[in-house]
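FAQ

Q: What does a record look like?
A: Structure on top, sequence underneath. For example:
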């Protein structure tokens, strides 16, 4: 166990950064719009297929983010305008079934276009390995950690220092007060949904070289994302970051100690214990769990 500790820590940090980035988009959408996006996993799945498609035309998937992020922003805009916007303010049942419907449509669309075969994104430099303090890190893992860290920090800076970021935080805190202060909350909703979609696009691109891609891959990752978001605190971006690191450590260390078949049990047990002690999550506001 001691000998494997550097490797476990390195793997957990890489995985935690990706989990956090995927979960930040989910918690941003919920924190601002109070809508739980059950299609979030399918957005990630489509991003993984996009990365594979860009590699087929000779474009490095990481450089392809320069193409993928604008595409994801446009995709988020279309989904918001056509599907999400009409259900804002409706009952939670309507919102849940709406996003579940989008999830099912995207799954079947992927199955129709790409079949159910597993696909693995192979990179020419994918076998390059670094030895960092006794931990062996592949080039895709190193790139994933750096990109996820930079993008997450950039998102935090945008939320803290930009006008739209401050308007987003104000709307998340009190929608009615933000409206009275002259903030266009409908525009904030749209931007939050687009940014959340861009976050999951980046996460999907980083996951594509590390995990196999298939039409239902989003189901696993969206379950992890929900655990991360609720564990960290619904609507808290800092909580999503902390929850991602915690779940990744439990995933990695649990897989090493109890085996891969039981590792999910470990972080679900911790998840339930935290919610018994603090129902709003580690960084969540009191009362968020009721939503």
């Amino acid at each position: 166990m001691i000998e494997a500790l550097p490797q476990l820590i390195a793997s957990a940090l890489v995985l935690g950064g990706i989990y956090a980035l995927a979960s930040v988009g989910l918690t941003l959408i919920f924190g601002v719009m109070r809508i739980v996006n059950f299609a979030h996993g399918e957005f990630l799945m489509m991003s993984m297929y996009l990365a594979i498609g860009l590699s087929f035309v000779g474009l490095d998937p990481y450089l392809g983010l320069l193409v993928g992020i604008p595409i994801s922003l446009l995709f988020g805009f279309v989904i918001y305008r056509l599907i999400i916007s009409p259900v804002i303010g409706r009952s939670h049942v309507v919102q849940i079934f709406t996003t579940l419907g989008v999830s099912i449509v995207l799954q079947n669309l992927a199955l129709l276009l790409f079949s159910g075969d597993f696909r693995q994104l192979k990179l020419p430099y994918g076998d390059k390995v670094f030895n960092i303090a006794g931990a062996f890190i592949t080039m895709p893992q190193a790139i994933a950690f750096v990109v996820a860290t930079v993008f997450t920090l950039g998102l935090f800076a945008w939320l803290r220092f930009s006008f739209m970021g401050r308007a987003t935080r104000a709307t998340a805190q009190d929608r009615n007060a933000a409206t009275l202060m002259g903030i266009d909350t409908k525009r904030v909703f749209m931007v939050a949904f687009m940014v959340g979609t861009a976050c999951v696009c980046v996460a999907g691109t980083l996951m594509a070289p590390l995990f196999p891609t298939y039409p239902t891959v989003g189901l696993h990752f969206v379950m992890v994302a929900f655990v991360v978001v609720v564990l960290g605190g619904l609507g808290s971006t800092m909580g999503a970051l902390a929850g991602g690191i915690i779940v990744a450590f439990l995933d990695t260390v649990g897989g090493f100690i109890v085996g891969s078949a039981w590792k999910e049990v470990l972080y679900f047990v911790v998840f339930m214990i935290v919610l018994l002690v603090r129902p709003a999550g580690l960084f969540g506001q009191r009362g968020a769990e009721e939503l």
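Q: Is there anything notable about this one?
A: The chain has one domain: 5-290.
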